[in-house]
């Protein structure tokens, strides 16, 4: 059978997926724009291309975060269980991880949009 | 073992307790100072940090006296510069960060139900490094030689030897030394939290303090290394005239600002989160209920930890960067308000859901949060670039940062002192004095700092030693000075309360606040941490496992004895805290002090350019560390397993990812890799600011760097092969592999050196050769360490302390070599191939 979603991973690191996507998105936007503004003619691109690039990267980042959200939602048990998830069982621990990851995915989603917004309004490097 | 063992007869129990007491006894007499136990080191650490805070506070009062009236001549301009620079530097580097390390070292083991953190000697080494470095930096002002260019040491002022004197070197070298201590603490804290929790303490049951500290220690790994890289570039310029920040030779002062603030902004949260972590322990206790929204706190801690790395340019809004860049950072700076707000709402919700007891710790905690919220609001204001252009470098910023730091850090720390003091000697601090101190501090603080918003908006710049009479700043400044003294009086009351003799006061009951978390099981009169290591099944064990305290103290849980007279704790798995190993930790040692003192000596001697002494001290330090590692680590136990409980036998030895040492190496190398990454960032930074970043100079070419990479790769493969061969008991082949690998590393290093050398690259001529040399030199120093490690394994194998079954060292060295390989590949690909790619 083909799986739509990858198998559940038992690791602490999954908690950090969405914030890491945010960090990469942030870096790509900042470094990309900074290099363009420092070396405008580098690849023969104009600022519209930079904005488009930021748009594409943002869409990608949001898609990845949505995937992380979906996985987190599953790990949480699709909302079947309510917090505080403080039982001394691996089951409760997984629900906690899922819920915390879900919250972080939400925050990262908003933060990615925050960071992308300047590209909507600014049309040049403006020094 | 989900049930405690039956209670033993009294005689057996007291025999067990005697064993434990002997194993964990603190040394007496002058040898007391050789202790490495977390309770002693934590206290010394906190005491020293507090002393430095008082020292820096006095400097602040001097600054305020000078500014009390216009045209004052209480301090000379130069002494004023030294005073405010040292004030900021000491508060940040010698108080705010170390106090959190101190609290963590002191509290974490007992909170986690552990006896000790995994690397006590490393913790002690960190403390001694911090103390020596701190005395060196603070002492400089008594010789009129303190740093005077502001706590962020901007070039070109701070690179100019005529204007900044030796103070800048003292700042750079003294603090680099202290940064080493911070990274040591981060390693200790991360491994401690991930691997040394009591059995059963799954990550959903971990105290929130531990969550916060895990994040903060992770942040240190990514925040401090860029500063270390910056310090390296800076010192190379000051000492050897390599022009990293000199625009006339292709350098750029802005690179320093980037590296400094990549450290400096996360630093604010590195300071803030541990203090808020204290609040996360205090608030539930005084609301007498579990925290509302445990997962939300985890969201806030992790979220703030990440977002805080996207804020650094908001300190550089006025440097002329493109506005699109400023806007990214402005947006991220606004976004960080979300997780910060979440935790404050969680506290409010917890208080609303419970019945709040307004004790002294709560007073300091809530008062501090109120102050912090005001600082947060002005923070949102200055995160907007256009507002910042007006407010930058004025007293508005001074007000903002003090509201954030004193509200977000100092007040919660004082709350923590009042709350946790009974853990030190069983007695509470005075409630009356505490309340007096709070009101003096709270009122004094606001009287001192609120007017500064207005002083700043009226145009008073920071860091001016005086101001003329007619600007309309007189009254505001005078009020600030009065407030500062009221505030200082409050701090003095706290000091008096802490230091006053309390032997007449009766010892209070254990857990005097009726708290729910594990640290209150602790008996301060014993050095062993916990009598037996409990099985945890809840977030607030003392509330939710009512019999636990008694069972623990009756020695009915794990490791209730010490039959071999060794200090032992349990290593558990990361997610579910399954017991996997009994870890033996080190006892008192002089060698850690010797290592720290000699390393400190090397840094001090370097400041004064005493090269022979530097080399001598460095050699002694290197020898001391080798001795320490040889005698203190990788010990082969006399038996394979140890009985930890009635039905639990655990191995005494582990290697690879199962061992704490492997994790320490991994974490250290992440930090090391970040520093290297910062240098690579520097290389590309110079590429972006110049149309031809080589300035026409010859590069190292591609040939020699590629030869070097190939040789490094061979050496790396041989090292990895040596690990495999050893594991398969082919000891002869393993020794042969290491014997070939070490000379290959020498050849690789020579080839790496030869590239820029044969091209005649002169690092003082232009920034391009300088940055190439730095990347190469960084790799060569790591290669030298790589050789030492390869030879170490060879010698250890010959000496019989590295065997197929006991191969910790081999695993750790192979891990180092993975990082070594990435470093060499990156460095030589960048210096050898990149210039060809862009021309």
What does this structure look like?
- The complex is a heterodimer of chains A (127) and B (839).
- The radius of gyration of chain A is 19 Å and the shape is elongated.
- Chain A has one domain (14-121).
- Chain A is 66% helix and 0% strand.
- Chain A has helices at residues 17-38, 47-76, 90-121.
- Chain A is an all-alpha fold.
- Chain B folds into two domains: 37-499, Cytochrome c oxidase-like, subunit I domain (Cytochrome C Oxidase, Chain A, Up-down Bundle); 660-838, Cytochrome c oxidase, subunit III, four-helix bundle (Four Helix Bundle (Hemerythrin (Met), subunit A), Up-down Bundle), CATH 1.20.120.80.
- In chain B, the strands form two sheets. A two-stranded antiparallel sheet of chain B has the order 1-2.
- Helix content of chain B is 66%, strand content 3%.
- The mean pLDDT of chain B is 93.
- The termini of chain B are far apart.
- Chain B has helices at 10-24, 38-67, 77-111, 120-139, 161-164, 167-195, 208-240, 253-287, 294-307, 323-335, 337-353, 360-382, 385-391, 395-425, 431-457, 474-499, 541-544, 548-553, 591-607, 611-632, 660-689, 703-727, 731-758, 767-799, 808-838, and strands at 567-572, 579-585, 641-645, 648-651.
- Chain B is built from 25 helices and four strands.
- The chains are: A mainly alpha (127), B mainly alpha (839).
- The interface between A and B is large, with 48 and 45 residues.
């Amino acid at each position: 059978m083909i799986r739509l979603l990858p198998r559940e991973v038992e690791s602490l690191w999954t908690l950090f997926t969405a914030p890491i996507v945010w960090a990469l998105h942030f870096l790509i936007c900042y470094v990309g724009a900074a290099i363009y503004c420092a070396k405008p003619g580098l690849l023969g691109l104009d600022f519209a291309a930079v904005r488009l690039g930021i748009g594409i990267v943002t869409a990608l980042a949001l898609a990845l975060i949505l995937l992380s959200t979906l996985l987190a939602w599953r790990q949480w048990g699709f909302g079947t269980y309510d917090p505080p998830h403080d039982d001394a069982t691996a089951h409760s621990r997984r629900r906690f991880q899922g819920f915390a990851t879900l919250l972080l995915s939400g925050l990262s989603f908003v933060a990615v949009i925050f960071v992308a917004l300047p590209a909507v309004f600014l049309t040049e490097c403006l020094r | 073992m989900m049930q405690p063992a039956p209670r033993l007869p009294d005689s057996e129990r007291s025999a067990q307790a005697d064993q434990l007491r002997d194993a964990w006894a603190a040394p007496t007499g002058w040898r007391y100072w050789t202790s490495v136990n977390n309770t002693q080191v934590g206290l010394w650490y906190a005491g020293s940090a507090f002393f430095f805070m008082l020292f820096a506070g006095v400097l602040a009062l001097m600054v305020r006296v000078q500014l009390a009236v216009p045209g004052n001549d209480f301090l000379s301009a130069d002494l004023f510069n030294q005073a405010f620079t040292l004030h900021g530097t000491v508060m940040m580097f010698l108080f705010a960060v170390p106090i959190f390390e101190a609290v963590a070292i002191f509290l974490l083991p007992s909170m986690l139900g552990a006896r000790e953190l995994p690397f006590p000697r490393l913790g002690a080494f960190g403390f001694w490094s911090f103390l020596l470095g701190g005395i060196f930096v603070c002492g400089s002002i008594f010789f009129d030689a303190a740093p005077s260019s502001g706590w962020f040491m901007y070039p070109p002022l701070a690179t100019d030897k005529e204007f900044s004197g030796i103070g800048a070197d003292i700042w750079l070298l003294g603090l680099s030394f202290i940064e080493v201590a911070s990274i040591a603490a981060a390693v200790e804290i991360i491994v401690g939290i991930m691997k040394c929790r009591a059995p059963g303490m799954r990550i959903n049951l971990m105290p929130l303090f531990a969550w916060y500290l895990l994040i903060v220690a992770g942040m240190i790994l990514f925040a401090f290394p860029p500063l270390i890289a910056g310090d390296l570039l800076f010192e190379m310029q000051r000492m050897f005239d390599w022009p990293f920040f000199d625009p006339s030779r292709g350098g750029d002062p802005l690179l320093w600002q980037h590296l400094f603030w990549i450290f400096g902004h996360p630093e604010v949260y590195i300071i803030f989160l541990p203090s808020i972590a204290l609040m996360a322990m205090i608030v539930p206790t005084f609301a007498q209920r579990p925290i509302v929204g445990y997962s939300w706190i985890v969201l806030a801690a992790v979220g703030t930890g990440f977002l805080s790395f996207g804020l650094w340019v908001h300190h550089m809004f006025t440097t002329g960067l493109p506005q699109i860049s400023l806007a990214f950072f402005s947006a991220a700076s606004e976004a960080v308000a979300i997780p910060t707000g979440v935790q404050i709402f969680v506290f409010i919700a917890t208080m609303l859901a419970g019945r709040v007891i307004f004790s002294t710790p709560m007073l300091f905690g809530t008062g501090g949060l109120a102050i912090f919220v005001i600082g947060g609001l002005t923070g949102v204001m200055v995160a907007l670039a256009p507002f910042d252009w007006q407010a930058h470098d004025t007293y508005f910023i001074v007000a903002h940062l003090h509201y954030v730091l004193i509200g977000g850090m100092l007040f919660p720390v004082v709350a923590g002192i009042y709350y946790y003091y009974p853990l030190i000697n069983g007695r509470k601090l005075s409630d009356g004095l505490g309340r007096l101190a709070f009101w003096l501090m709270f009122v004094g603080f606001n009287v001192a700092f609120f007017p500064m918003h207005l002083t700043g908006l009226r145009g008073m710049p920071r860091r001016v030693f005086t101001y003329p009479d007619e600007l309309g700043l007189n009254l505001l400044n005078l009020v600030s000075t009065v407030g500062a003294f009221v505030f200082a009086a409050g701090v003095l009351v706290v000091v008096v309360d802490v230091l006053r003799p309390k032997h007449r006061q009766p010892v209070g009951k254990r857990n005097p606040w009726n708290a729910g978390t594990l640290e209150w099981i602790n008996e301060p009169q014993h050095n062993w941490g916990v009598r037996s290591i409990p099985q945890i099944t809840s977030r607030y064990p003392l509330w939710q496992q009512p019999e636990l305290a008694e069972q623990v103290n009756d020695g009915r849980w794990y490791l209730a004895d010490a039959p071999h007279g060794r200090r032992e704790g349990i290593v558990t798995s990361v997610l579910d805290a399954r017991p996997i190993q009994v870890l033996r930790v080190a006892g008192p040692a002089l060698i850690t002090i010797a290592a720290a003192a000699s390393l400190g000596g090397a840094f001090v001697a370097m400041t004064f350019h005493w090269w022979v002494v530097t080399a001598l001290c460095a050699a002694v330090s290197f020898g001391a560390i080798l001795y320490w590692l040889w005698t203190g680590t990788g010990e082969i136990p006399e038996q394979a397993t140890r009985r930890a409980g009635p039905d639990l036998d655990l191995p005494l030895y582990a290697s690879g990812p199962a061992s704490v040492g492997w994790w320490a190496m991994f974490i250290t190398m992440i930090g090391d890799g970040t520093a290297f990454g910062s240098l690579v960032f520097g290389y590309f930074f110079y590429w972006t600011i110049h149309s031809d970043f080589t300035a026409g100079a010859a590069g190292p070419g591609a040939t020699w760097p590629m030869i070097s990479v190939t040789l490094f790769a061979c050496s790396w493969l041989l090292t990895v092969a040596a690990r495999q061969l050893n594991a398969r008991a082919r000891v002869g082949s393993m020794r042969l592999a290491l014997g070939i690998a070490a000379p290959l590393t020498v050849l690789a290093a020579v080839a790496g050196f030869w590239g820029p050398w044969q091209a005649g690259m002169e690092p003082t001529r232009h920034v391009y050769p300088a940055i190439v040399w730095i990347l190469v030199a960084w790799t060569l120093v790591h290669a030298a360490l790589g050789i030492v490690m390869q030879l170490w394994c060879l010698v250890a194998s010959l000496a019989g302390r590295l065997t197929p079954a006991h191969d910790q060292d081999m695993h750790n060295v192979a891990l180092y070599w993975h990082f070594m390989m990435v470093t060499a590949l990156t460095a030589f690909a960048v210096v050898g191939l990149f210039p060809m790619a862009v021309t």
